[in-house]
Amino acid sequence: MATPTSTVTEYCAALGKSKLVREDELPAIRTAWESESRGGDADVESFRKFLVKTQYLTVYQAALIQRGRSDGFHFGGYVILDRIGSGQTAGVYKAVHTSGQVVALKVLPGSKAREQNVLGRFQREGRLLTQLDHPNVVRAYQLGQVGGTHYIVMEHIDGETLDNVLARRKKLPAPEAVRVIHQALLGLQHLSDKRMVHRDLKPANLMVTPPSGNSTLDGTIKILDIGLGRETFDDDSPETQDLQLTSEGALLGTPDYLAPEQARDARSADVRADIYSLGCVLFHLIAGRPPFQDKNVMAQMVKHATEPPPRLSDLVPGVSPGLSAVVNKLLEKKPENRPQTPKDAADLLKPFLPDKAATAVKMPVLPEYQQWLESESAFELPNDVRAAIQAVKPKSATDVKPLPVKPRIVPPAPVAPPKPEEVNVELVAFPEDEEPRSPWELNRRDFAMLGIGSLGVLFAIGAGYGLSRAVRRKSADDEATAEPPAK
What we know:
This protein has 18 helices and eleven strands. The protein has helices spanning 8-18, 26-37, 44-53, 59-66, 110-113, 116-129, 162-169, 174-193, 238-243, 260-264, 271-287, 297-306, 312-315, 321-330, 342-349, 367-375, 383-390, 444-481; strands at 74-75, 78-83, 91-97, 102-108, 140-146, 149-155, 160-161, 196-197, 206-209, 220-223, 230-231.
């Protein structure tokens, strides 16, 4: 177990072992700190803040070093900068490749990889993501393994999800909301072109990048979390059957945005169910509430299947009848009555787009990183990249200066694979005060599954009771009509 550092000397020893800073640099760095702060060996906190200020370490790295952690920062050609999630299955970390490319590393610890279903789902998600390349869909650069630890390298997104936007702003002006869903539909068309269905489109799985502030008009919308999705050709494959990704009766999706046919059978849902979900999100963005609300999840799903949505003009005065008609078209009960492709739906929304808005921007990839991805089959860096990185290292105390753009990086060292804390799989930073959900806390999907299971049990009990009554009645009738035995 790591022992927290109590002196600057101990901190420097742990820092040297971490390989985040070369050991021969440490005397110059410490001299520069002492000259600036006039601190002593006991001033660990001051030294830690100096390392963060001069960008030798990130806040996350500096805190772990102070706790005595010196391993786990280098991983498959990447340096871990920060943790950007919290949960129970896989961990997502902000990392930088030695070419300077900032990425998100989704890491499945070895303890979880031993569970075949978990590993299968993780590898399947990586396979799906690496097929994608569109400005409105989060994508993956690389799928790999170091020792027993599996990982997916994904683009790092600086933004906020639509549910956070709604929590802050409650609802959006109609043209702004239309632009959000128009971009999401373009991303969904890319998924459809790759023969994929998402099956859980909701505000929490749509991100605005960069963070939107008081307007999303300058941002790009990204579809997140392809993990529940499927390829339209793979439901009968041995892999899918083994993983039980779409088992009969499973409720996949979120009740506020769930298409009627998906609630009945997730396996039969196609991209038109995703179009319905985005129609629900568009309604929510404009009206400030989902189209169908009910505390009882089963009753809510019945409303999705049987009731017409409220008129937007009744909830939000000034919404054009044409836009209301398009929203209703997206929310048709029968899939055949909706737009048949995301592009068709996007075309219906075009007349209602704002006059001035930025176009979607693709996340940049550094040429050096792209070249590395294309040329490197292993995780060792070319010698010229190593030499280039070494050339920028300071040699004396007078050279210790803040780096101009990014945190200090060094070539990966042959250290043991990291043992990351098990955190959530979303590419979004959670509030610091948010605690992981207790296993005893039920969400809406849990209640839905509980309701479905309870109904099944009650039906079975009722059927058994009715059958037993019928058998007893039949026996009694037979006895009454039977001839008495001969004397």
